[in-house]
Amino acid sequence: MPNPFEEPIPDDIREQDIYEDESETWGSSGINPDPDPDPDPDPDPDPDPDPDPDPDPDPDPDPDPDPDPDPDPDPPVPPQTTPDFTLAGYPTSKQHIDQLTSVQNAVPSVLSQNPDDITWVTESIWDASTWNGIPFDTTNKTKEELCAFIRPSNPYVIRGIREKYYEVNPFADPVNPTAQEIDNWNIEVINHIRDLFGVTTRIVPDARLYLEARWAEERKWTQFWDAKYPDSFSCGGGSISCIGKSPGPCWSGGTRVDTAGGHCGDGFFPTDVADRMQYINAPPYNGDFVKYPELENYNFRVSQSVAGGSLGNVDHDLPWTIRLSVQIAGYICGEGVTGHAGSFLGLDPDKPLRTRYGSSLYVSGNRSGWRHKFA
Question: Within a domain: residue 26?
Answer without folding.
Answer: no
